[in-house]
Structure formats: structure tokens, C-alpha cells
Design a protein that fits this description.
Blueprint (H helix, E strand, L loop, with lengths): L6 H4 L5 H10 L8 H5 L14 H15 L5 H14 L9 H6 L6 H14 L3 H14 L5 H7 L6 H9 L3 H11 L4 H12 L2 H9 L7 H10 L2 H5 L14 H14 L15 H10 L8 H16 L11 H13 L2 H8 L5 H18 L10 E5 L10 E6 L2 E2 H5 L8 H4 L12 E7 L4 H4 L1 E9 L2 E8 L16 E4 H13 L6 H15 L2 H4 L4 E7 L6 E9 L5 E9 L5 H14 L5
Helix pairs in contact: 4-5, 5-7, 7-8, 8-10, 9-10, 10-11, 11-14, 12-13, 13-16, 14-16, 16-17, 16-18, 17-19, 18-19, 18-21, 26-28
């Protein structure tokens, strides 16, 4: 009997593509599992788990570069198999896409032939991944059927989706949804799409749960071809063919979820049909019943179309402005105004109505549009999906942070405006405009140096990590020069803007302002101000973050919560400052 480690050599392995065909023709979870067909190649006895990145990059580059121009694709594919098998320790699968993405392609036709040979005949996990990474750069429509079949192997879903994204977004999205179809609503949508039943797709799409993650929301819209279903909204189309109010409402929710930053980068940037979907949603707004939920969707869409990441899509002259005008018309009708003007019910309802009133007031103001100056807009998301309050900066009408950073929201107004963070002086100052959602120490932050140069204000000396892959991200950030008078006027306007705030937030800002004016209040307790704001899940509680040195020399954080009690913010802030004058807050 042969030893276990000898059996792979004695029994030739079928290609992974052949295994995928068997999955298609058999039960997806039959007696042999998807995991067997696509599991990573087993490490050889004695191989170390780790592998140096630079060494991997150099070895894989040396192996693949000459093979990408080889005339014999089949022979080159065999060399890829042998070369990868000889690497000890084995290459990590996650390293392959990044390395392959950086390889020079002197002969795209030959590189594409090698990629297809690896994808269709490769019998080991790593060579097939190399082929998929190449097709992510070189794939064509004829590759789609092969990629869709390989997507039946769960261990290859990620690289298959990456390759399909370049040539067939709906197919890539469908594989994504199939891979995460734990929710019965997602399973029903996938089944309707695969059956080609357009009416069922619209029905299942409208029935999706409200709390989809941002990426899942985008993939659902792509797989179901949401923009195409919404195009039926319009005066030229009969009522029977037009999408239902439920589908229009769901479109608004999916677009809203895509603008969330909980996945670090706004998924709306990756949704290529965003402009068409927004048009369909706004045209369909006339079908919606005036409710607080629908009002919040319309207000959120207006926020995004005015200053959010969706602005970066290719809109063309006047197209986005027309949607903003239509939203203003709908929201200005008496029935819709009554929704926001009424008194709320429970605490959550009151918060949401107060937010809607603030946003309605902000949107009613026409942007100043000062020439040669940035535009500052302070934006809070719908409290039903809480997020940080952003200080959005628009230069030449384009939102700066999502365009050049794309890893988290812009800083809060307390960080950038309170205390004069964006003011320009003769002394250059470096300012942090945004931080990654995870933290700066993990994925970085966006910094700029601001200085006054005669009658101009200069933004230069940018520090920023490479943004996530997206055709809408700008890779290089130029120096920006603004007219000093217009710049100062816009910063002063933004600093004095109180319309976006609510009582607890004003209390936190007043406490922080008092601490900056009276540094002795914290100095006596060996404390320093870190930040101020409101609790993420309880916006009616002001929070002040204080830092103090710990026994090990590291700074410790102390969060001081000041709940809403109905008194004016200035009175609550004054009482909090008086307490600090008398007692150590840590007691």
C-alpha cells in the first residue's frame, strides 16, 4: 500500500474546472464536498507557515515574467505548476493578486492565453489563482462561462468574483450572493435571478431585509440589475409596467446602505449604475406614500447627491442638479412637509424628526459657491443608521475625502472647525482631514499642510495611503491654492454654522470650548482634552474624552457622559465646567 504522501503522484488530479463542472451537474453539497475540489494545496511536511513578502514577490515575478510572453501557453502553464510546487514555504494565496497586478504585460494576447490555460486546466489551487488574477486584468466576455463555473467552488469565490468584476458585474454579484445566502430573502432573490423571471426578481428585490451590509446591498443591486428595473419609471411607460412603490422604496434603501462607511470605503463608489439608479429612485418618488421612512430616504439621497461620494460618478452637465431640484420639489409639497412638522412619538421617532428638520433646513440653503475656495458641509446620517458627523470638504464641487482617501469618513466638525483647525496662518500647520474607519494605526489617515501665502491659502504636503482600488479614486493629490478672502469667509461661515447641531451635541461643544479657554480645569487633575461629541448609540448624551497618564507611562482614556436633562445646553455645559473646578472627574 502506498504512503499517504505518495498518493497524489500516483493518482492524477482532475482540473479544478472539471471539479466545478461536476458541482454544476450534481448536488451542490453532495457526498464529495466543494471544499475538497478547491482546498488550498497541502503544505509539504516541514514547511514553515510564514513567508516573507519581498521574497515571495521576487520569486513569483521571476517565475511568471518570462512565461507571460511564451508562445506555448500549455507548456508555460506546466512551468507555473512546477515553479509554484517547488516554492518552500508555499506561496500564500492572498499574496498572488497583488503581485500579479504589478507584473508588466508586454504581450497581452500571450498572457491571456496563459491565464485561460491555467484557469481551465489547472489542477492545483495556486496556479488557478494566478490565472484568475491575470484574467482580472485581461478577461473578456468569452471567459465569463468558465469563471461562473469555477465560482461554484467556494474556496475560489473571492478570486473568481475579482476576475468577473472586470467583465460581468451582475455575474460576479450573483456568485457573491450565492456564497452568502444564509438569509432566506437572499436565497429567494438568487433563485429568481437564476430562473430569469423578471417579475419575481422585482418582487424578491423589494422583499430584501432593511439591514443589509453595504457590500451586500451593492451586490444585490448589481445581480438583480436594479437600474434596469427602475428605468420603467417615467411618463412614457404605462402604469402596469412601472415599478411598484415597494421597489422604489427598496432602491432608496439599497442606495442609502451603499453610502455607509461601515465597510471602510463607500460601496456607492463601486456601483457603476449609481447615477441611473438614483435617477430611477428620484423619478419614482412620486409613487411613495409620505411617511417618515420615505422622507428620510429622500433627504438622505439629497445629502449624498449634494456633497457625498455619489457626486464622483460621471453625471454630465446638469443631470445631478436636476435630481436635487426634483427632490426639493417633492419634499416641499404640503403632505411631505407635514411628515416632518408633526411631533414625534417615541424617543427614536423624535430624534429622527429633529434630524429631518435640520437636514431640510440645510438643503434649503443654496451653497455659497465662492470662487477659488473650498465648500464645507456638515452632514449627519439618518439616526436610524448612525454614523459619524462628517465635515465634508468639496473642492471644485467634488468631495475631497472619498476621492483621494476612501478609507473612512471626514473628521467631525469638533476636530476641524472648533478651535480653528482649518484656519490659515503664516505658520504652516499639518491638519488631519480624515481617519480610516478602523483607526489611523491600521489603515492610515489623510493629512494636509495649510499655510497662507500672500493673498492665497495653500493646501499642500499631502500625506495619504494609497486609496482602495476604484476608477473614481484620484491617485495623486495636487497642490490647491485658494483666494484668501474667499477661503476665510467660507471657514468663518462653517465655524459659525449651528444648524446641524442638536442639544447634546451643543453641550459637548460648549464643554470643549470652555476647557480650551480654561486649561487649568484639566491641568489640576493631570488630564488633557482628547475629543468631544455624542454617544454613538445615544445621541442625546454628550461625551467628553479625557486622557491621563497611566502607571505604565501610557496614556489612558476616560469618557465623561453628560446625559440630556431638558436644561439649555449652555446651562449643562456651565454646570459640567463648575464640577471640574471642584472635583477630579475620575472620582
Amino acid at each position: 500500500m502506498s504512503a499517504p504522501e505518495e498518493r497524489d503522484a500516483l493518482l492524477p488530479r482532475p482540473s479544478l474546472y472539471a471539479c466545478a463542472v461536476r458541482v454544476r451537474d450534481a448536488e451542490p453539497e453532495g457526498p464529495w464536498s466543494r471544499g475538497y475540489a478547491a482546498r488550498p494545496d497541502r503544505p509539504r511536511p516541514g514547511s514553515r507557515a510564514g513567508r516573507d513578502w519581498a521574497r515571495t514577490r521576487d520569486e513569483l515575478t521571476d517565475l511568471l515574467t518570462p512565461l507571460l510572453v511564451a508562445a506555448d501557453a500549455a507548456g508555460a502553464a506546466e512551468d507555473v505548476h512546477r515553479g509554484l510546487a517547488a516554492m518552500d514555504p508555499p506561496v500564500r494565496p492572498a499574496q498572488i493578486p497583488r503581485i500579479v497586478h504589478g507584473l508588466p504585460l508586454e504581450n497581452e494576447a500571450r498572457a491571456r492565453a496563459l491565464a485561460r490555460c491555467l484557469v481551465r486546466t489547472g489542477s492545483c489551487h495556486l496556479p488557478v489563482r494566478v490565472g484568475l488574477a491575470l484574467l482580472a486584468r485581461l478577461g473578456e466576455p468569452e471567459d465569463v462561462p468558465y469563471l461562473r463555473r469555477l465560482g461554484l467552488l467556494r474556496d475560489l469565490v473571492g478570486p473568481v468574483v475579482h476576475a468577473l468584476d472586470a467583465v460581468d458585474r451582475p455575474a460576479a454579484a450573483l456568485i457573491c450572493l450565492r456564497d452568502r445566502e444564509k438569509a432566506p430573502e437572499l436565497r429567494a432573490l438568487v433563485a429568481a435571478i437564476e430562473a430569469g423571471d423578471a417579475a419575481a426578481v422585482r418582487e424578491r428585490l423589494a422583499a430584501l431585509p432593511r439591514e443589509l451590509g453595504p457590500e451586500t446591498a451593492r451586490r444585490a443591486a448589481e445581480a438583480a440589475r436594479l437600474a434596469e428595473h427602475l428605468r420603467a419609471v417615467g411618463p412614457a411607460v404605462g402604469e402596469a409596467a412601472a415599478p411598484s412603490a415597494e421597489l422604489v422604496s427598496q432602491a432608496g434603501r439599497l442606495l442609502f446602505r451603499m453610502t455607509s462607511l461601515r465597510d471602510y470605503t463607500p460601496e456607492i463608489l463601486s456601483y457603476r449604475e449609481a447615477a441611473q439608479a438614483y435617477e430611477g429612485f428620484v423619478r419614482g418618488a412620486r409613487r411613495l406614500t409620505p411617511t417618515l421612512d420615505h422622507c428620510a430616504l429622500l433627504l438622505s439621497a439629497a445629502q449624498e447627491l449634494r456633497s457625498g461620494a455619489a457626486v464622483l460618478h460621471g453625471w454630465g452637465p446638469g443631470r445631478r442638479e436636476a435630481l436635487l431640484a426634483e427632490l426639493a420639489t417633492v419634499l416641499g409639497r404640503a403632505r411631505w412637509r407635514a411628515v416632518v412638522d408633526r411631533d414625534g412619538g417615541d424617543t427614536a421617532g423624535r430624534r429622527r424628526i429633529a434630524w429631518a428638520r435640520r437636514v431640510r433646513g440645510q438643503l434649503a440653503r443654496v451653497p455659497a459657491g465662492r470662487p477659488r475656495a473650498p465648500r464645507i458641509e456638515i452632514v449627519q446620517r439618518d439616526p436610524q443608521d448612525p454614523g459619524t458627523v462628517e465635515t465634508r470638504i468639496l473642492i471644485d464641487g467634488r468631495p475631497l475625502v472619498p476621492e483621494v482617501f476612501g478609507r473612512g469618513p471626514a473628521q467631525a466638525p469638533e476636530e476641524l472647525l472648533d478651535g480653528g483647525g482649518l484656519r490659515a496662518t503664516d505658520e504652516p500647520r499639518e491638519v488631519r482631514l480624515a481617519e480610516a474607519y478602523c483607526t489611523e494605526g491600521c489603515c492610515g489617515a489623510l493629512y494636509v499642510t495649510i499655510r497662507r501665502d500672500g493673498d492665497e491659502v495653500v493646501w499642500s504636503g499631502w500625506r495619504c495611503p494609497v486609496p482602495p482600488p476604484s476608477p473614481l479614486h484620484r491617485r495623486e493629490i495636487p497642490e490647491h491654492r485658494f483666494d484668501a478672502v474667499a477661503y476665510d469667509a467660507e471657514i468663518a461661515r462653517a465655524e459659525g454654522d449651528q444648524e446641524w447641531t442638536w442639544p447634546a451635541r451643543r453641550t459637548a461643544r460648549l464643554i470643549a470650548a470652555g476647557l480650551r479657554e480654561r486649561p487649568d480645569l484639566l491641568g489640576r487633575w493631570d488630564l488633557e482634552l482628547d475629543w468631544s461629541g455624542t454617544a454613538f448609540h445615544d445621541p442625546d448624551t454628550a461625551v467628553v474624552s479625557l486622557l491621563y497618564p497611566g502607571p505604565d507611562g501610557h496614556r489612558r482614556q476616560y469618557l465623561w457622559h453628560v446625559p440630556e436633562d431638558g436644561t439649555p445646553p449652555q446651562d449643562r455645559a456651565a454646570a459640567a465646567l463648575d464640577r471640574l473646578a471642584e472635583a477630579d472627574p475620575r472620582t
